[in-house]
Amino acid sequence: MLAAKVSGSTALFSDALEALVNVAASGLALYALIIGAKPADDEHHYGHAKAELLSAITTGALILLAAVLIFHRAVLALWHPEQLATLEGGLGLGLALNAAAGVMNAVWAAVLRRYGKQARSPALLADSQHLFSDVLTSIGIVAALLVVDWLRMPRLDPVIALLIAGQIAVMGWHTVKRSISGLLDEAPPPAVTERIHALVREYASGAIEAHDLRIRQAGHASFLEFHLVVPGEMTVNESHAICDRIEAALKQEMHGAIITIHVEPPEKAKNDGVLVP
Q1: Are residues 16 and 113 in the same domain?
Q2: Are residues 200 and 130 part of one domain?
Q3: Which of 68, 112, 189, 204 has a Cα-to-Cα distance from 162 of 20 to 30 A?
Q4: Model confidence, pTM
Q5: Is the dihedral of CA 64, 3, 149, 72 positive or negative?
Q6: pLDDT tens digits for 97-147?
């Protein structure tokens, strides 16, 4: 905000507004991680992990709000242009401040992305993605304003802000859309499903087939369930041993996954899903 004030730049104001959204998004992410880490209880049998998805949706909504505010400011600047400071004056200082903030954002975004991937946290990954976008925006703004000063065309400043508004609006929409998919228990990508099928097929030796496989993701937690058809003469202990093998293999791939296997007799076979050789 100081960079925008000393330079009079609408583009730098737009970057500052996006940075304020980053602060709010980080606070939401922290709160969501604290709530999401709580174990399951009598009122929440599947835990609290979806709090992270709600946080990511709110972050996306804040990004969209920032885009609207930037658009409003840019349109006003086009209709009522203000004098943009020169590079030797306030613009140079504003760009230097903005560049320094961009470097700090880049470092912090990399840290969040690393730990977000390790923890499979939608909240941290959404925050990291937003910060990376802010870094790219800052780089573009610095370069564009240098060109604006060189060409002596201050009216390009609000035009740059309009472009930024459009870019972050798209990012906000994608963040909201991706998080809503998680809340609606959207199926995982085909590659994930095929990998699970392969593991079940490999470690279900002695069974006949596995069908009705369903997977859902709630923040960092994964829930997987399916029906396992076994020979009628197989004992409970033998079928349980097969289930243990499958669960151990799946949990190597899906850390922290909650797996439910329903054992069925041969007459329940559907001859589809995962056929065990």
Answers
A1: yes
A2: no
A3: 112
A4: 0.60
A5: positive
A6: 888 988 998 998 899 889 888 877 776 787 787 778 778 778 878 887 888
